[in-house]
Amino acid sequence: MGTSQDPHKPPNSPRIIPRPEHTLSRGCVSQNALKVLYRLKDCGYQSYLVGGCVRDVLLGHEPKDFDVATDATPEQIRKAFRNCRLIGRRFRLAHIHFGRDYIEVATFRGRGDDDGDDGGDREVRDGRLISDNVYGSIEEDAERRDFTINALYYNIEDFSVRDYVGGFEDLKARRLRLIGDPEQRYREDPVRLLRAVRFAAKLQLDIDPATEKPLTELGASLDQVPPARLFDEVLKLFLTGHAQRTTRLLQHYGLFEALFPDSARCAREQPGYARMLQRAMENTDERVAQNKPVTPAFLFAVLLWAPLQTRVEPAVADGMPLHDAIHSAAEEVISRQVEQIAVPRRFSVPMRDIWHLQPRFKHKVGKKARKLLEHPRFRAGYDFLLLRAEQDESLAELGQYWTELQELSGKALKDALAPQSGKGGRPRRRGKQKSGETGQ
Ligand code: ATP
Ligand code: MG
To answer: Which of 3-7, 29-33, 175-179, 191-195 is least confident?
Structure first.
């Protein structure tokens, strides 16, 4: 396949950074990725590591996963591996499986294939799965990637890094730069707006001025992104350990507003909600750093909380029971949201639970309190209560009560939950409550 001698290919020959001049050693690469690279090479194909893994290692970060690019076609890849599955339709990718792990192998992509990343199934118009120019040369493959630092190729042949777009210099300068004309590249695939912010925040890079300028101008084009793809992207923005910096940057460029217009408006009007958002992002980052689980349900419960409240409050003032008001407000908020960012039901259902649990925390003793403690979503609801309590002093005592209650077990818990144990009081750790004590 393509070499730089081909007259139809661009004349740009790569800058080759030899092994002694970069920091990517085979020791940084997973055994499975190495097996794939060597197997392709031994079959006579070009094989490179490319994308996030090369970028992350060169920046001194641990890569999340390893992606391989090759000139072998999907069929050729399949023949080279026993443990291979082909996925995708028009642009087919190979997954080489090793138990639970797999390595993704992509054939170099050509110019014609410029409709962004594989965001779900594509229409196959005339039944032809592969158009003539889907696959291409390594130069073309480099050009259709998004940022220069994402287009570096580690060559298993001689351990050098190949750079067609100036990514190596950009990495050294810690600069994030789109390949090609920024506005055009963002319009082709508006998800790149969010990727720019995500990489800038995660890797603490400076965004090159030409790449930065459209960020404030093209937010509205996110409307054209399929909602399911935006959901995936939103999770990467907020649940991968850099939510605080990412949120600040999104707000700075008006992209937070483009993603969550109602939440952004509430945050502008209510400083308490703005702080709640910020604290939620802080907590999420801490949890990720400690390898604790984080869930999209909790994230969206926070992101949509103020929009929910702005509907609940007038409904309750009109005499609607609180539970019903939350229910119908949730319907409305969620249906507005999913038009733009598709939150799957497996997350929207627990998100509603978190909301519905909030008024139930006021039942501090008796059967209702015990049932609440046993609720499968109690912990998430309680964490949410604490987050609210940080901004709302009138909830501080309630938060404290439930914190202490959870430390109790056995008889102490039973006593604390006993209806006569003094509504509104602190759970007693030992001894009997004095008669008449209100517990305040
Ligand atoms: P990370 O996995 O850490 O989020 P990554 O750079 O590996 O970062 P992926 O989404 O895994 O991101 O994509 C792998 C590579 O595919 C990228 O490095 C880039 O070269 C290319 N790529 C991904 N999405 C796009 C896109 N929307 N437009 C152009 N190229 C893309
Ligand atoms: Mg990746």
So the answer is: 3-7
Pick the residue whose CA is nearest to atom 25 on ligand 1.
117
Q: Is 415 a catalytic residue?
A: no
DSSP state of 163: E
Given pLDDT bands bounded at 50, 70 and 90, which one contains residue 423? low
Looking at ligand 1, which residue's alpha carbon is closest to its atom 24? 117
Residue 35, token pair as written in the block = 């097996």
Name, in order, each residue with C-beta under 8 angstroms of 181's C-beta and a sequence gap of 6 or more.
none
d(CA 417, CA 403): 14
How many Å apart are CA 275 and CA 267, to the nearest integer? 8
DSSP assignment of 370-391? HHHHHSTTHHHHHHHHHHHHHH
* DSSP run (H or E) holding 47: strand 47-50
Q: What is the pLDDT of residues 355-376, one digit of tens each?
A: 999 999 999 888 898 999 999 9
Torsion of CA 227, 232, 236, 239, to 10 degrees: 100
Tokens linked to 161? 């890094």
Q: What residue type is 176 in one-letter code?
A: L
Is the model's pLDDT at 69 over the cut of 70? yes
How far, in Å, CA of 368 to CA of 376, rounded? 14
DSSP-based three-state secondary structure for 30: coil
Q: Are strands 175-176 and 206-207 parallel, antiparallel or unpaired?
A: parallel
Phi-psi region of 127 (alpha: psi -120 to 50; beta: other; left: phi over 0): left
Task: Tell me, using a 6 A CB cutoff, whether residue 109 lines ligand 1.
Answer: no
Q: Residue 129's pLDDT is what? A: 39
Q: What is the pLDDT of residues 284-342, one digit of tens each?
A: 999 999 999 999 999 999 999 999 999 999 999 999 999 999 999 999 999 999 999 99
Residues forming beta bridges with residue 67, ordered by sequence position = 50, 104
